[in-house]
Request: fold
Amino acid sequence: MDLSAKKLFVFCTVLACATAIDVELAPTISAAPVEAQAIADHLSSVKSMSGDFVQTSPNGEKTSGRFLLQRPGKIRFNYGHQSGVSVIADGKSLVVLNRKLKTSRLYALSKTPLKLLLDNKVDFSRHRLKSIRDDGAQVAIRLADKSSFGNSTITLVFDRKSLDLRRWSVTDEKGLATTVSISNVKEGVAVAAQNFVIDYTANREFNTRKK
Reply:
């Protein structure tokens, strides 16, 4: 099933689009709460990974595919069902490419919430950490950085025992959330550099033809 132009626009908007820390702990938890920085350090130690993903849009529509990640700053989502859509970050920029619709939208990676996930040293420091919720099975950490991506936030959900990343949700300034859940994850995989190459010339040509 093809991704519609509308769905692609929503995803782009979510990517491109307060000070007190609210710690919420379920009262039934007997173990000591997991420290946010311990999770950040564990995530930082995973320098590469691959796996499957399912993306849930604000209207509940689901799309799936494969992803590759390599620190710092590199990620690739290949959407399935012959959609022709890829999302690629090369450490500097992020592009949403739709080969069928012949569109290419380019963003500065530093202005997207994904930057917090892709940094070489993941930072859950006080100025970014907005809340941490521990329900005994999973830990959800909500982060924001107004200077980088405005009023959007990203919530990362980790397995409490292994501290492995399970999913993340990006919420835009209108409160619309796009969630990406990952599975069949392999860590420390060898990833070819060409997976993260952005064709800046093609991006320029795509957008020049539209004018």
About this structure: The radius of gyration is 17 Å.
